[in-house]
Amino acid sequence: MTRPGKRPGPPARLSRGAIVAAALSSGDLESLSMRELAARLEVSHSALYRWVSGREGVIDLISETVIDRIIPADAPTPDTWREWLGRLAWAAHDEFLSIPGYATRISRPHRHTRGFFTMRDAVVAAFRAAGADPELAEQSWYVFGTALVTWLGAQEQRLLGDAPLRFDLFLDSLLRGLPARETPEYGIRPAAATD
Asked: Could you tell me which CATH class the domain 63-176 is placed in?
């Protein structure tokens, strides 16, 4: 029985961390149901819905947790921005590929969560530390983020072949080309051929 004026809230044993841990322990995010997750947490189905709006809400919690884990605690500086982005990328590599199906899911079009914007802001700050103006820092984020997430999704799906690929070579090539610059040598559209 609740006291007058006090609304019932989520059960005390539920927390963001508990939900994420239970979801990750399922081993397969694609087939995880809310009923299965509630059973793992030993709470009612309706109690779980007081914390998250549904399966997508669980995935959002996981994404926010993953992003919190991969962004380095220190801020990028003009001397450390490239190394800082390297640490972020390696952490993303390890975190994304440790959760079955996660890299593939994130590499497909999806609704962006708070975690996406947190990561975008951190990466843009790194490119600003590298000396890029605001527009080029934002463009550099799109190149970096798209390339990183697509590569990890393709690696997880083995779309890039059966042999293990060297993430270090991919990352080195990616970071050597960033931040983006105006009038890139290879980015100019060729003139249309005339008959």
From this structure: mainly alpha
